[in-house]
Specification:
CATH class of the largest domain: Alpha Beta
Number of domains: 2
Strand order of the largest sheet: 1-2-5-4-3
Number of strands: 5
Helix content: 40-55%
Radius of gyration: 19 Å
Structural class: alpha+beta
CATH architecture of the largest domain: 2-Layer Sandwich
CATH topology of the largest domain: Beta Polymerase, domain 2
């Protein structure tokens, strides 16, 4: 019995590792797809959780990139902070893979703000010297019904891609669950991000993934 349990655990980790590799190399863009591809490749009927894949992804980046992965993450968080300070009146929060601490080389910096007039956010970015590539309104179907937001795409001074999601003011404080991990999306506001960069700049925020950090 013990051997069987150990074997299942090991197989689960192997699938998670393979899924992490598929994500890291860009062969899969979504966790669900990566897990299904990995399970098929290993002829396994076990699917690990997204958090387990995230743990393996963190390990993989550290093994292959060493200090480079942490340096990239810290730089991306610092660049995100610069953009957030420009958007301070709109109560910005860092979210996505840069918040989680699992940013890959091709990851963008995701920031959400709260404003009923997206043009105000757009104007603030342009006046600060950021070149906006494009912007668009997006309607997404969620369990509670359609949710509207406005997406602004730009680049940092170093050329890193940033996506700013403008949500209505009434959405501030409304809890939303992460599609990947299933937990509440907390993100980091400006003071919180500054504290992380000062005390533990490469800290990871993954539910059940304490091993990553």
């Amino acid at each position: 019995m013990t051997s069987g349990i150990r074997s299942r655990r090991e197989l689960r980790r192997l699938v998670a590792r393979e899924a992490a590799w598929l994500l890291y190399t860009g062969q899969a863009r979504e966790y669900k797809t990566a897990k299904e591809m990995a399970a098929k490749a290993l002829r396994a009927r076990i699917l690990p959780s997204n958090a387990e894949v995230a743990v393996e992804l963190g390990r993989l980046m550290e093994e292959l990139e060493g200090q480079g992965a942490e340096e990239r993450l810290i730089k991306m968080r610092a660049e995100g902070l610069e953009v957030m300070k420009v958007l301070e009146p709109f109560r910005p929060r860092l979210i996505g893979s840069v918040w989680r601490g699992l940013a890959r080389e091709d990851s963008d910096i995701d920031i959400e703000v709260f404003c009923d007039e997206p043009e105000e956010v757009l104007r603030a970015l342009e006046e600060a010297g950021y070149r906006v590539a494009r912007h668009e309104a997006v309607v997404k179907d969620e369990p509670g019904g359609p949710v509207s937001s406005y997406h602004i795409y730009l680049k940092t001074r170093s050329g890193r891609e940033v996506e700013v999601v403008v949500r209505p003011k009434e959405m501030e404080g409304v809890e939303r669950r992460c599609e990947i991990f299933g937990d509440i999306i907390r993100g980091l506001n400006i003071p919180e991000l500054e504290a992380v960069l000062r005390k533990e700049p490469a800290k990871k925020f993954v539910p059940g993934g304490e091993e990553v950090g």
